[in-house]
Structures are given as structure tokens and as C-alpha cells.
Design goal:
alpha/beta, 47% helix
Length: 348
């Protein structure tokens, strides 16, 4: 298995923004020093759910402070960007990192619809534009002798982007897939997926659906195996010496995050936006049924047991976030050490 550190650095206290950004940079440097297999960056705006907000700028800063670790987006919200601007920025970042970039994209989450309103668009418009935006992004990366593009949403004409991407023909593309329809859509074209399914069984079911769709779409076994090697599953994680200590340290900050985000969505999202059906905290769910949860909060032994379940279900790569400032920097870094030193060797 490969283990990535997801720099989903949550900070619900605006007064701590400057400190939080520096803490996130320290986490990134530590992940490389500890031998994590990848660093992933997210994009969320206006709430502190992802405290640094801008994944492109944050990944660029980290690229300048690291030398080895691959850097991936999980994900860029294409609905909030012009595809040509993304093509230019990612091509530059691919050069700055000397080919360490992985580009994960998404249509966007309806649960935080206020993010789209803040950029003058909507979830529905973002979903409608995504396929064309991704097509234009790839064509911009690869066009050598000029690009004339006349789509439904974008009409552009230019000689070529500069600099050219460092990786040829372009950085690897991923797509976040949260629903069965999205998994099937990506399986049909063999696009690696970033998954969030609860528990090992659901993650395994998602990967089986993805594999079966690739097979029925004509991909051979070698291609399927190569693509599955690039698929990742997301887990929130926090480790301490005992279960009680882990919960005591993680619970206040995480439940405060859930409360603040719930209130922001209620106030700022459109009245017809979907709301979560969850009636208890994600942490409470993981305590009540850790096997079926998408969080791992406990001890080294707990983590080993959950990763064994994931491995047996067919999961090959796990991206893990400590949610940054939900716990103190010292607590988060200690958890990262426990994972790298006590857990990873059992799965490498």
C-alpha cells in the first residue's frame, strides 16, 4: 500500500489564519521527511474547512520546500476556474516541481453551494461545464501549433501555452468520484479515481464497480491493474496512545468544525441546496461502528486493523488527513510520526 498525507488543513478560527498556513507548510515538510508517498491538496473557500483555500498557490509553496514527494490536487474545483488559467498554472507548477504534479478534478460539492455563489456561479452550472472544461484543459496542455476551440461555454484561440508541462504529454489526471454514476463514468474512460466510501466494504465495492466497468469497456487486464495502482481512498485519521486519549484530543476541534460549517451552509447556501442527512457527528459514527466509518481515530493497533481491512478489500493507496488545526500542531505531528514509524512498515 501507499500512504499519502492529505493537507486538508482545517482551521475554523479566522484569528489563527496566519499561524494555520505556517502549520500546514510544516506538515507538508514533515510528510516528506517521514517518507509519505504523496502530498494531496484540497480547495474550499470562505469557511476555513480548508484553511489555505487556494490549492494551486499552496502546492506551489510546498513544491519550493520539498524535493521528492509527489504533489496532487484532491481536488481542484473546475467550476471556479477558467480552464486556460488552470492549464497555465499547472504547467508552471509541473515545471517548478520537476514533474511531481498530479491533477485531481471535480464537478464540485452541492453541500457547500455558497462557495460557487461566492465566485458568481452555481453548482448546476459547474456540473454542466465540467466535461468541456476538462477537455479544454487537456487540449491546452498538449496543443503544439495553436488551438482554436469553439465549445458551448468557452471559445478561445491562441498559439500555445508556455511553459509546456514538464511531464509528457501532461500531468496525470484524476477525478473525484463519490457516486456510482461518477465511478462508472470514469471507469468507461479509464480515468483514475479518488474515492471517499465509508468503511472497507464500501471502498471495496466502489473499486470492484470501477474494475468491472473498465473490463466491460474493453480495457485489458494490464491497463486495469495499472489504473487501479493510481486510485486513492480518503480517510480522516488521528492516532494517540489510547482510544480515550485520541477521542479526547480530536473531538472538540472536529465537532466545532462540523458545527461551524453546518451554520455557514444554512446561512449562505441557496435555500434549495441539499443538506447532509447525518444526524450525529462523523466522529460519533466512527466510534460507534469503526469498521463502517471513513475515520480512524484511535491507536496504532486500530489503524493497522483498519488498513488490513482496506488492503483485503482491494485498496492500494490511502490519503490521510489529520484536519490540521483541529488538533494542536504537536499532536498532529505526533500522529504522523506514529503512522510512519509504527504502521506503514507493516504494509510496505
Amino acid at each position: 500500500m501507499k500512504f499519502g498525507h492529505f493537507l486538508f488543513h482545517t482551521n475554523m478560527h479566522p484569528s489563527k489564519d496566519a499561524e494555520s498556513v505556517q502549520n500546514a507548510l510544516a506538515e507538508a515538510r514533515l510528510a516528506e521527511a517521514l517518507g509519505y508517498d504523496a502530498l494531496w491538496f484540497s480547495e474550499h473557500h470562505f469557511s476555513g474547512e480548508c484553511g489555505y483555500s487556494d490549492a494551486l498557490i499552496m502546492a506551489t509553496a510546498v513544491a519550493m520546500q520539498t524535493t521528492r514527494i509527489p504533489l496532487g490536487f484532491a481536488v481542484l474545483e473546475l467550476a471556479l476556474h477558467h480552464p486556460i488559467r488552470v492549464a497555465v498554472q499547472t504547467a508552471l507548477l509541473d515545471n517548478l516541481s520537476r514533474g511531481r504534479l498530479m491533477v485531481g478534478l471535480a464537478r464540485g460539492s452541492a453541500y457547500s453551494a455558497f462557495e460557487f455563489r461566492g465566485f458568481g456561479t452555481s453548482v448546476e452550472e459547474g456540473i454542466a461545464r465540467t466535461k468541456e472544461a476538462e477537455d479544454l484543459l487537456v487540449k491546452a496542455w498538449t496543443a503544439e501549433d495553436g488551438l482554436e476551440y469553439n465549445g458551448e461555454y468557452w471559445q478561445v484561440s491562441f498559439p500555445r501555452i508556455r511553459p509546456r508541462p514538464y511531464q509528457k504529454p501532461h500531468p496525470p489526471l484524476f477525478r473525484a468520484a463519490m457516486s456510482q454514476s461518477s465511478i462508472i463514468e470514469m471507469g468507461k474512460i479509464g480515468r483514475p479515481v479518488l474515492l471517499r466510501g465509508k468503511g472497507s466494504r464500501e471502498a471495496g465495492d466502489q473499486l470492484t464497480l470501477y474494475r468491472d466497468t473498465m473490463a466491460s469497456s474493453g480495457f485489458n487486464e494490464e491497463s486495469i491493474e495499472k489504473t487501479l495502482d493510481q486510485c486513492w481512498v480518503w480517510r480522516d485519521i488521528y492516532l494517540s496512545d489510547t482510544n480515550e486519549q485520541a477521542i479526547e484530543e480530536f473531538k472538540p476541534g472536529f465537532e466545532h468544525f462540523e458545527e461551524v460549517l453546518r451554520d455557514l451552509r444554512a446561512k449562505w447556501s441557496p435555500t434549495d441546496a441539499p443538506t447532509s442527512t447525518r444526524t450525529v457527528s462523523m466522529l460519533r459514527e466512527s466510534i460507534d461502528d469503526p469498521v463502517a466509518a471513513s475515520m480512524i481515530v484511535g491507536t496504532v493497533d486500530d489503524a493497522k486493523e483498519r488498513f488490513e481491512e482496506l488492503r483485503d478489500a482491494g485498496v492500494r493507496n490511502v490519503m490521510m488527513t489529520h484536519r490540521g488545526d483541529v488538533v494542536t500542531p504537536d499532536q498532529g505531528q505526533r500522529s504522523m510520526h506514529l503512522l510512519a514509524e509504527k504502521v506503514f512498515p507493516s504494509f510496505k
